[in-house]
Amino acid sequence: MAGSGSNMKNIWIIANWKSNKTIAEALDWVSKVGPAIPKRDGLKVVICPTFSCISEVKKAVTVGNFPLMVGVQDLSPFGVGAYTGEEPAKLLEDYVNLAILGHSERRQNFGETDEMVAKKAEQALANSTIPLICVQNEETPVPEDCKLVAYEPVWAIGTGNPDTPQNAADVAKKLKQKYGGELQVLYGGSVTSQNVKSFVSQENIDGVLVGNASLDAEEFIKIVKGCEE
Ligand code: PEP
């Protein structure tokens, strides 16, 4: 089992639903996945739904007492105030534990820059929300005080063509050398129940960020179980 005994390490499994699922679909997923997740300290399973589903998902997780955390896929770089259309960390902190920041789809489609990612990370940190910074490689800057990173090569996202576990582990190791040993590094890009174990069994990889394969409840349960084998 990953993370047993004295070598216990955290395993993060983060579901990025992107712009998918109605509230009814989201609640159906939670009702299937919630009871199937083992309760164990180092296993950190996070659902990142759309903003419109967050309060209902949070309620379902709380009522079911499921070992699931809730996250967002983005955050405002500003605080509360006159910022039309933005979702500030301050107003989300009662619902979420984590924020995915700097995802390549935001960088490509919404012009997100490293500077904007740093401002969003500051907002997250000031409002009890863990920033998960997405990087292309060890050259992408990780803002100060951020301790959770996802290495996501853009060519591996949604393509069915994952990086090799060895290369992902090399990048993770370089990131840890650069930012310090307490940095936790996840891999993301075409992770499935078939390949998840090959990534999380690498010494320097602390979990996975999962897009497409997280949408299906049965497949996601298999991904979690695959990490626990
Ligand atoms: C992602 O978008 O973060 C991702 C990893 O997507 P997929 O798993 O679909 O490649």
| CATH fold name | TIM Barrel
Average pLDDT rating: 95
Counted by DSSP, the helix tally is 8
What percentage of amino acids are in beta strands?
15-25%
CATH level-four homologous superfamily name: Aldolase class I
The strand count comes to 8
> What is the domain tally?
1
Please give the alpha-carbon distance between the first and last residues.
5 Å
Q: Structural class of the secondary elements?
A: alpha/beta
| CATH classification, class level | Alpha Beta
Hetero ligands: phosphoenolpyruvate
Per the principal axes of the C-alpha atoms, what is the gross shape? globular
Explain what the structure shows:
The structure is a single chain. The protein is an alpha/beta fold and 229 residues long. It has helices at 23-33, 54-64, 89-92, 104-110, 114-126, 165-179, 196-200, 217-228, and strands at residues 11-16, 43-48, 68-72, 98-101, 130-135, 148-151, 184-188, 207-210. The chain has a single domain, classed as Aldolase class I (TIM Barrel, Alpha-Beta Barrel), CATH 3.20.20. Helices cover 34% and strands 17% of the residues. It has an eight-stranded parallel beta barrel, surrounded by four helices. Bound molecules: phosphoenolpyruvate (PEP).
